[in-house]
Structure formats: structure tokens, C-alpha cells
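Q: I'm writing up a methods section and want to include an example of the input and output format. Could you take the sequence below and give the corresponding predicted C-alpha cells, formatted cleanly so I can copy it straight into the document?
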Amino acid sequence: MEFQELDIKGVWLIKAQRFGDSRGYFSETWKKQEFEAHVGKVNFIQDNESFSSYGVLRGLHLQRGEFSQAKLVRVSRGEVLDVALDLRSGSPTYGQHVAVRLTHEGGEQLFIPRGFAHGFVVLSEVAQFQYKVDNIYAPHSEMTIAFDDPDLGINWVIDPAEMLLSEKDKKGIRLNKVKSLGF
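A: Here is the clean output for your methods example:
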């Protein structure tokens, strides 16, 4: 596996080696010992999967406090633009984000530590998105940041008129309100 720490400390792009032949390929997508040697110890407790069509935007989501989650995300079908927004208190990169295209062809994974909001938009006809988390889902601690907050400067690649959002994601709060909510 190749591990590359991105422009925001703690966010890692991980690429697993693929062994292919005329039948297809084989790849080890998770190796605890190798992950911990590069990124550190994380106790993933649950795997999740979503399936979405072109233009679906999910995010920017995070859980606060004791229910904060680290995530290891990947695409097993299609292509997404994946975004991690740093909301760690005292971080020199607070309010900054990284955006990475994840594809099933490339097999890229993104590790997002605790204290980040996370979201993605589907760029292909459909996308199957898988992620590991290190904490339970706790709706009472969840927060949604406005994907279109101009202070974030996120280029989601597709026209907002083509995006499909849940009601929750349409009502995300702006970054400048996050601290006033006790985060």
C-alpha cells in the first residue's frame, strides 16, 4: 500500500496495490498493521455503504464531542469528489479542506481523522461508496455544514443545479456559526 499525507495534517490518501490478470484483479484494501505504521492506531467498529446516482451530494457531515468519528472511505463503483473539512479546534488549517477524486478504477481511499466534516458528490452515473468508522452513529451529536458556504471555497465540480440533496443537507450551517454552537 502507498500512503500519502495530504495538505492537511492527518488526512491520508491510500492506494492499495492491485494484482491483475485476464480474470480481473485482487487487492488488499485494509491491513491493520500497515495502516497503523503510517497513520496510527484507529479502532474501526463498523462498515457502511451507500449507493447514489449522478449529482447526489451527501454532506458535509460530522459528529461532535465523544461521538466524533474517523473514517476510511473508498468507492467500489463509479467516481466521487470526496471532501474533508478541518474543524479541529486550534488546528492551523481550521476551515480548510482537501478534495480528492476517488474512483473504483484507481482504488484510492481517503482517511479522514476525527474533527473533520466529510462529504462527497457523485460524478459518475452511479456510485457505490464504502466507509469504515471508529465510533457509533449518534444523531444527537450530528452537525451538517453548508456545502455551498462561500467561505469554504469548495469547487464541487458540477453545477449546483444538477445536485440532489437531502433536506438535512439543504439546511447545513455556515462555518462562521460552528464555534457559536459549541464546537
